[in-house]
Design goal:
The complex is a heterodimer of chains A (295) and B (351). Chain A is mainly alpha-helical and 295 residues long. Chain A has 14 helices and no strands. Chain A starts with a helix and ends with a helix. In chain B, 39% of the residues lie in helices and 22% in strands. In chain B, helix 7 packs across helix 8.
Chain lengths: 295, 351
């Protein structure tokens, strides 16, 4: 009755051998293809570097002005614009400007990459049940796997630094944009689609004129989610050498510096609120035509 | 628009539609006489349309009438092949829509047909003008030309000044005017109207019917109009086909349907119809024997008007003439009144 009280697990030696074999396989893979990946990712590295350089080396008043202009254009709302300026001034006053800019750069680049990759994947998923059936479990894994686990293969493949950090952040942040693009495409009114067909729309015209515009509010909700998840992952990614607000947080945890942790944490909250309010206001503005209803 | 004066005829031949996972394997059984109920119970497939044969002459309004579930919306979607048939032919002009490949079908939909939908199906993110140009935009016409055409039809359906409103800002009746303008802007010879006015309240519906009839006098398109409302069918239709459970139970002119309903199902519909306003003198006149008596009445006049004229001038008999004045037949007042009031059911009509 031994097997009844103690789970009949795989033999320890065999298990170790299995793990070793997988590790060895992956290590060989990284040795063989690590350089290739680095070459492929070079443009990303360059883009990331330029964005970070732009944000950290430009004079701070210009950066704040640029943020204010973007917030105004996106939201057309004075309250949000003033909130953005005040938050950034506070962050600067508490001497977290550079770290914050590095984090913003990482978040912006990760979000842009997630949008560029995620929306087409979401569209494919929205158009084919088979692709949806394949991708859904993958997205489930991506969303539930503890975020630290992502760091391991990325570090093995690319070492530590900005780019592996960026990849880890992007992988963590991409599922919402894919899922919500898929959902948005699937929720488009069947009657309107039929009308588009009846007038002889090609697939591309259907996508461009009907599906994308009608799915846009849902897609914007996905973008918002993606930004939030990217920000959350930035702290974790600091474990593999991503600079920014995550690093002081990590230091604070290791040394029990309560105030340091809280200040940097609040800075992350601050930029999260900036991104959230601005992108939500933009999303709402896109749906203006739905608001004025005939009485 | 001169080339549309005669219009393109539509001929539907032996059309079958079976809904389900494997319709092809049951088509032979259905053709051999399997009933809708048997197909549904034993094989879990639904017989949507069964052996439909309708000839729709070009330039006229063909109404297809039936209650919900009769297959009328399925039928109209076969004309531009939004639904693929299981078997049969849909000949438009001299082309079989069923045999077209994807590219041909797209061209056919762009240039030959335009459709108006029950639930309007406007693009909510586009203004009235942007919705109206849709068909021409898809065809790739220059923007200027698109807008010129669109503005003309927006004005024609009475929406001047609403060009930059969004559909949500308009009432149902106005939204359907946009739907109509969008279809007319396409300038296709065939206009498909799927319960286009059913979602509107009665007064607006009458109003829209008038708009359509007025327009039809000048555009002379081949209109296929789906409805569940007999009054609407009789008001609009040059020809009417009545559908029940996916089969045509009767087709013909409105007078034929009112005067000689093919079965109890149709008589139950036509019983409530104001016959005096539907039936024309041509249906009740008798061959002329001897000299024409009384007053002349023009062919096509409805009984109500004829009876009024005859009783006003107090004559028991009149004669029917065509537009040039040639005598076609004689008309007795008692025949006129009898045709107006007799609630004909199909038994006595046949007798």
């Amino acid at each position: 009755m031994d097997w009844f009280t103690k789970f009949p697990a795989m033999d320890t030696d065999k298990l170790t051998a299995l793990k070793k074999a997988i590790d060895l396989g992956f290590r060989n893979f990284t040795r063989a293809y690590g350089d290739t990946f680095e070459t492929i990712l070079f443009p990303v590295q360059w883009f990331m570097f330029r964005v970070e350089q732009l944000l950290t080396t430009s004079p701070w008043p210009l950066v704040i002005l640029a943020f204010a202009v973007i917030a105004w254009l996106a939201s057309r709302n004075w309250k949000i614009t003033i909130g953005v300026v005040l938050t950034l001034l506070l962050i600067g006053y508490f001497d977290m400007w550079l770290d914050t800019m590095k984090t913003v750069a990482m978040t912006v680049v990760a979000t842009i990459m997630a949008i560029i990759l995620g929306i087409p994947i979401g569209i494919l998923m929205g158009r084919s049940n088979r692709i949806q059936a394949v991708l859904n479990p993958i997205l489930d894994v991506m969303q539930t796997m503890p975020s630290f686990v992502y760091l391991i293969p990325v570090v093995m493949l690319l070492g530590i630094g900005r780019v592996p950090g960026l990849i880890a952040v992007m992988v963590y942040a991409i599922p919402p944009i894919i899922r919500l693009t898929n959902l948005g495409i699937r929720l488009v009114d069947k009657d309107v689609l039929e009308a588009a067909d009846a007038f002889g729309s090609s697939n591309w015209q259907r996508l461009k004129n009907v599906q994308m515009p009608l799915a846009l509010p849902t897609i914007m909700a996905g973008v918002n989610q993606t930004i939030m998840m990217a920000l959350a992952m930035v702290v974790v990614a600091s474990m593999i050498g991503v600079q920014g607000l995550g690093l002081p947080v990590l230091k604070a945890i290791a040394n029990q510096y309560f105030t340091l942790g809280v200040f940097n944490g609040l800075a992350i909250v601050g930029i999260a609120i900036i991104f959230d309010r601005t992108s939500q206001a933009y999303g709402k503005r896109l749906q203006k035509h739905l608001e004025v209803v005939h009485g | 628009m001169a080339e549309h004066l005669t219009g393109i005829g539509i001929s539907i031949r032996n059309l079958y539609k079976i809904f389900g996972s494997n319709p092809d394997s049951y088509i032979d059984a259905v053709k051999a006489g399997m009933t809708k109920a048997e197909l549904n119970e034993k094989h879990n497939h639904v017989l949507g349309l069964k052996d439909i044969n309708i000839d729709m002459p070009g330039g006229g309004i063909q109404v297809v009438m039936g209650l919900s579930g009769s297959g009328k919306s399925t039928l109209i979607r076969h004309i531009n092949r939004l639904i693929d048939p299981t078997a049969g032919e849909v000949i438009v002009g001299d082309e079989d829509v069923v045999k077209m490949n994807e590219a041909q079908l797209r061209e056919f939909r762009r240039h030959k047909t335009a459709m108006v939908f029950q639930k309007f199906a406007l693009l909510p993110h586009r203004t009235v003008l942007e919705n109206t140009v849709y068909g021409l935009e898809i065809q790739g016409l220059p923007r200027e030309e698109q807008e010129k055409q669109a503005r003309r039809w927006i004005s024609r359906v009475g929406l001047d000044g609403f060009e930059s409103n969004y559909p949500n800002q308009l009432s149902g009746g106005m939204q359907q005017r946009v739907g109509l303008a969008r279809a007319l802007t396409n300038d296709a010879p065939i206009l498909l109207m799927d319960e286009a006015f059913s979602a509107l309240d009665p007064l607006i519906r009458m109003d829209m019917q008038t708009v359509l009839l007025d327009l039809q006098k000048e555009i002379r398109k081949t209109v296929v109009f789906i409805t569940h409302d007999l009054d609407e069918a009789l008001r609009l239709g040059d020809r009417i086909a009545i559908l029940r459970d996916g089969e045509v139970v009767q087709q013909g002119t409105k007078q034929e349907i009112v005067l000689r309903p093919a079965d109890e199902y149709i008589s139950s519909f036509v019983r409530e119809v104001n016959r005096g306003r539907v039936i024309s003198v041509d249906m009740v006149m008798a061959p002329l024997t001897g000299e024409p008596k009384g007053m002349p009445i023009v062919s096509g006049t409805v009984l109500e008007i004829a009876a009024k004229k005859m009783t006003d001038s107090n004559v028991p008999e009149a004669h029917v003439t065509d537009s040039s004045g040639a005598v076609l037949g004689k008309l007795a007042i008692n025949e006129v009144i009898s045709a107006m009031v007799t609630p004909v059911d199909h038994d006595s009509a046949a007798a």
